[in-house]
Amino acid sequence: MARSLTRSLSGRLLILAILAVMVVEVVIFLPSVARFREDYLLGRLRMAELASLALLATPEGMLDPELEAQLLRRADAASIVLRRGGARALALSDPMARMVQETYDLRDAQAPELIADAVMLLFSDGDRVIRVIGAPAAGMDVVEITMEEAPLLKAGRAYALRILQLSLIISMFVGVLLYLLTRRLLVRPMARIVASMAAFRENPEGPEPVFVPSSAVTEVAVAEEALAAMQTELRAALRQKARLASLGEAVARIAHDLRNLLSTAQLLADRLEGSADPVAARVGPKLVGSLDRAVALCQSTLRFGAAQEAPPAPRETPVARLAAEVADAVFPDAENGDTAPVRLEIDVAGKLCVWADPDQLHRVLVNLVRNARAAIEGAGRSGVVRLSARQAGAMVEIDVADEGPGLPRKALDNLFQPFRGGAGRAGTGLGLAIARDLAEMQGGALTLVASGEGGARFRVSAPARPPGD
């Protein structure tokens, strides 16, 4: 029970609240006891002053011994000395009084001194005789009394005990109140959050509704909203993954059949290389190369559907030759003239090489160049797609820039996210996601450098040399 109390948040807050109130009460306790002691002694001085005045009012300043003893008992004093006009006169005294062991002057006593005297009182044995000097009222006579310390000690300890009991009651009340408030405002909402998280972990795709925030405490409300958003996004991601899994299976089947069709077309295209027609002889090798890449793409699609994407086979690849092949794939000769509404410009040094898998890097660049062309045509504009490359240290940076309208906000927010980052109605965003994965497999990266009214610029980076060179 005690261990569970100290381990729980509400239990710890209860203990801390009690301790905090007790500390505050201790800070108040010492001045309070000091004030009680001072008031007690001033009360004795006032009683002594009244007894002295009664003595002075009698003829010849004489009192009956029994009356004198009664006045001393009323003042709780063994002797009374009255100072008037600089003179010091013994007013009343007990002939059996003991020797004075300590003197306290209340006239100029400061708070630290009073507190120290009060603490010493609580820990004394009360067997002393003390002298107390003070002026019971401002502008009045100075009165000295000698008295036994035992009654003062008894009254002081009784007062301190009452203060401690009251402090404990207040501490318990505040602690319980804080405990109940904490349970209501923090622990219960947190328990709801934990229960929802546990249920969601057990069955994230279950029919249970998403957590509904309800707390009025700002910090807890933020946690509840974050949990609700996380559950919503995770369920959407799980549904998307399920759709992707189904789509992947369908694509794998299509790719399997398409590979067979392309293999047949590849065999027929091989005959064009030996054709006497100059156009067929010129176009034939390009068509064969395109069919080879299409067959390889189908093979990689099948491996991707089986979660076995082929690792890259990097080698030294001239970037200029790669750029020319990309131009042939996206901008055939008939579509890349000076009069074409959209044309491709290539700015690559002839000797610049990259250490990468040429087929995979070709897929990345074809995807980017095709997207750039579609962005310009989709905006109803004419413009230029620029493919440029340069070496930057150990990396080669290949930029693909267009003069289109730039990426829309939705595409920017979900960039490189399959089926979420498409720039147009027909776009799925899958191409950019695949391109980024392929670029990272080469040891490089695919990033968006800029996007705006002047167009978009993507950058592909890949190693210039093999690792360790």
From TrEMBL:
* Keywords of this entry: Cell membrane, Coiled coil, Kinase, Membrane, Phosphoprotein, Transferase, Transmembrane, Transmembrane helix, Two-component regulatory system, Virulence
Q: Which InterPro entries match?
A: 2C_sensor_his_kinase, HATPase_C_sf, HATPase_dom, His_kinase_dom, HisK_dim/P_dom, HisK_dim/P_sf, Sig_transdc_His_kin-like_C
Question: Which EC class is the enzyme in?
Answer: transferase
Which residues span the membrane? 12-34, 159-182
Report what the protein is called: histidine kinase
Q: State the coiled-coil residue ranges.
A: 220-247
Catalysed reaction equations from the record: ATP + protein L-histidine = ADP + protein N-phospho-L-histidine
PANTHER family for this protein: SENSOR PROTEIN CREC (PTHR44936:SF9)
Its annotated compartments are: Cell membrane
Q: What is its main location?
A: membrane
A GO cellular component term found in this entry reads: plasma membrane
Example GO molecular function term? phosphorelay sensor kinase activity
Q: Does the keyword Membrane belong to this entry?
A: yes
**EC identifiers of the protein:** 2.7.13.3
Q: Which organism is it from?
A: Rubrimonas cliftonensis
Membrane topology term: Multi-pass membrane protein
Stretches assigned to the Histidine kinase domain: 253-466
